[in-house]
Amino acid sequence: MEHRYLGNSGLKISEIAYGNWLTHGSQVEEDAATACVRQALDVGITTFDTADVYANTKAESVLGRALAGERRESLEIFTKVYWTTGPGGPNDSGLSRKHIMESINASLTRLQTDYVDLYQAHRFDIETPLEETMQAFADVVRSGKALYIGVSEWTADQIREGQALARELGFSLISSQPQYSMLWRVIEDEVVPASEELGLGQIVWSPIAQGVLTGKYKPGQAVPEGSRATDESGGSQNISRWLRDDVLEAVARLEPVAADAGLSMAQLAVAWVLNRPNISAAIIGASRPEQVTDNVKASGVTLDDDVMAAIDDALGDVVVRDASLTAKQTPGTRPT
Fold first, then answer.
1. Residue tagged active-site, from 54, 82, 148, 180
2. Which residues cross the membrane (predicted)?
3. With a threshold of 0.90, does the pTM exceed it?
């Protein structure tokens, strides 16, 4: 497993991180989730990403139990705050000082740790003054409950404003966590240049496009039973945009590209992300340990220019590049 610096910080993280967004506490039983975490550790993953909202706090608890007994200093544990947790009261979401302070304490309890390495604003909160949010994050860092602060799905302008305030308060934003894959490239024109300028690295989620880039979904065929596309708890909604025949036909054209590179389709997708600028890590998820084993083989793989060009040729115009779509990730009102 290769490791990379996270942004311009001195923190090194595994270039493939393990995330438990749609699995722990919801899609798979805890024994299976724990087996995936143990496999991640066995293959050299040291970075684990979660959020308080995943399975309404259950995912953090599952991860905390799965990592119990590991040397804490050898791990990088990330979590996030913003979305609604608990019963959904008026202060159970957002980036107010109240919600941040209560959420970090609850996350640490569930994760069974005294601190997280990275605490991330899971979205931009338009209802809370950014000064209040950044002051709260500064206090979380000074208290030692989080070592670093990052953001997720913020626009370039939001990152710029947040970084300016953070530096006034004596800390820096070091990471951005957007969706990014061969198919979804909306960060390339604005978020990545701003991040490079300001010292943030990308920790990207869904590098395999919710499993579509594995090639298991075929044009004109029913989705496989038991796949994410059949999961009504969240997986099916997120993957539906990619289940058009034109997308699946384009993905099928990647199969000879992967074969010529000596990679599985999943490995090609993860390696592609890791070969792009400003990437610190790609987050993978898994419901079975063998998926972890397969995906981590993308670590350290260099794709030459011909392979990168062949990928672009295969996918053609199904790739989504519209930079304005990042702004649509900011909720118009605080969730309840």
1. 54
2. none
3. yes
